[in-house]
Amino acid sequence: MRKVILMTLVLFITQSTFTQVTHEIFESFKLQERRNVSYYFPEDYTPEKKYPLVVVLDAEYLFDQVVANAKFYSRFEGMPQVIIVGIDQSKNDLRWDDCAFEEASGLPADKGKSFYEFIGMEIVPYLDLTYSTAPFRMFIGYDITANFGNYYLFKDRSFFNAFISIAPHLAPEMEIRVPERLMAMEQQIFYHLIAGGGKPATGNEIKLLDQNLRKVDKPTIHYSFDAYPESNEVSVVTYGLGKAWEKMFEVFKPISPKQYREEILTSDEPAFKYLEDKYNTIEELFGFRKSVSLNDIMAVYAATRKKDDFESLKPLSDLCKKEYPETMLGFFFEGEYYEQMGEAKKALRTFEKAFGMQEIDFLTKELALEKIDAIKADFGY
Fold it and tell me: What's the pTM value of the predicted model, to 2 decimals?
């Protein structure tokens, strides 16, 4: 039922995307030809914000679905808004010329080299110069165009941070080369592989690629895989994109109950460090500082109590004073910190400050007053 509702919303959003989509004919010096290109910009785009960039090949086939997913997840699921560029490739089977590879070496053929530079030296720089893009870039392709994205891993530093590879038609040795390149990289890379689409001829290569990628044990490499064996070349995109999108932006989403149980509570590190690392990673990846959500603050607060990690209350209170300065959060957590440290007078004064602030979530003036009265009763103030 949830999938039906989600797809209905995505299709509804698709119908309302066209006011934010523009099309142009791009004069390419690298290709020495004119190419049809589509752009999507959030309807409330502002140069004051930074937007990750998504490059979509096979745009006639993939662009609208990528835009629909971007709008849905940014509106409902807590991911950043993005700028999307789609490159048309179906006319005259351009996709096979753009992304062709040499059978002997597995590397791009002659036009493929120019197409590689067209994306990296013309399309992306144009958007970087013209719009407020973040350093985070994603590549999306299907079949032969999905394979083409792998070539951006062959540099010392990948031009893209994230890849959605849908039923790729893999070049020779790619199932070995991709894992080797990911192992050699020091930057954060997200790689989502999707199998299916009625491509039995490439099934073994994709299966081997998946097996080898699972062996890449590195904290900076975030690999995920989904298979849709009953899908065809149309439905594999519909099924795969939404789930892949969700996994790509997992770090941007609020802390889930599963993460709370399996990652925060089981960690030997202070609970606040999880929150600190999460938001530092977001800033590093996306190029801007995301405001800390109340959900995440409350999750870490609950963990401090569950783990008796009262030392984390002090940095958490300092954070809350910056993020929610008009509310009780910062002073209430600071009061609890002093209370647990046995500093009753400081705790009393701090809870009195909290009492004068705005209520938020479960923190009420009545709760602050209970804390104040309890300390006075215990210590005879």
Answer: 0.84
